[in-house]
Amino acid sequence: MAGLDRKRVVVVDGGYESYDIEQRVLAPLDADVIVDPCHGDPARLKAATGEADAVLVRDSPIDAETIACMRRCRIIVRYGIGVDNVDLLAAQQRGIFVANVPDYGAEEVSDHALTLLMSVARRSVTRDHAVRGGAWNVSPGEKMYRIAGRALGLVGYGRIARALERKMRGMGVVRVLVYDPLLEPSAFADVESVDLNSLCQQSDFISLHAPFTRDTSHIINSTRIALMKPTAILVNTARGGLIDETALIEALRSKRIFGAGIDVFEHEPPCPDHPLFALDNVVLSDLTAWYSEESAAELQTKAAEEVARVLQGEPPRHWVNRWTRG
Q: Minimal CA–CA distance to 4: which of 32, 42, 36?
């Protein structure tokens, strides 16, 4: 009978080498960690989570129908920062906490944003291909521009954006423009707070660090791309839906902007014949900005700790669908 009292913590997406960390954190609470990769399948998600006391999710959509089938769930934790794949209101109405892990991987993501920016600015990918093909000293045909003395634009000004700012100031960037309507004026002490159109007009490098919501969908569209300098570089390590990909593809094809560094796509994984793959002024990666061995361990630990707090009767530290507790 004792086994019937054990708690079920269900991981609905695979992706990590092991779940020893979660098991170690939750074992003292008589909780079993059950890994059941559902691959986004609605029926399988409902079956996997119906008797769960807690759910850990990466990419699968946890919609209102899935939440309605959860008979015991007390918390849903997103492995990561964005929670756009979880119906926050439906969970709130059922009294289910939703938490994320916003305080991990800032160094890795900012490193990756800088890497993409540098790869575009210094044309490292096309140079690599050219040298392997026998070319040499082709600089005049592929102009490059100095990074020092230029302006960085940050769309969103959280931990990752501030880490990138620190690194790029070390490279000689002299202006930092920020668009983040969610912040109080006091948050902009060392940067220039501007509207998004001004940021697009004045920045040499634009890096996106905003959450994906209905308000931020296609926040970078054809109108705003048209405002950018012809030497501008656009980097996205946040969410693919922030950019209208059709508009970006057209701008890159026509050389309307210098280039782009993209780690996230509107639809993931992208189709094999995605138009961005044919362009030489964009550097692409596979949603890998967050990753290092250290950040993966940190993410798994902090996600499991949020579950542990709730199973012990406490609210999660990073509670994103807040309500007034009775």
A: 32
pLDDT-wise least confident of 184-193, 195-204, 241-250? 184-193
Question: What structural domains and CATH numbers belong to the chain?
Answer: 2-104+293-311 (3.40.50.720), 106-284 (3.40.50.720)
At position 87, the amino acid (one-letter code) is: D
Predicted TM-score (pTM) of this structure: 0.91
Using the CB atoms, write b or e for 228-242: b if 16+ within 10 Å.
Answer: bbeebbbbbbbbbbb
Helices (H), the chain: 20-26, 42-49, 64-68, 88-93, 106-121, 124-132, 159-169, 196-202, 222-227, 245-253, 293-311
Q: Is 78 exposed, middle or buried (0-12, 13-18, 19+ CB in 10 A)?
A: buried
Distance CA 90, CA 222 (A): 34
Residue 162 contacts residue 116 (beta carbons within 8 Å): no
Three-class SS state of 179: strand
Strand order through the sheet with 75-78 = 31-35, 7-11, 54-57, 75-78, 97-99
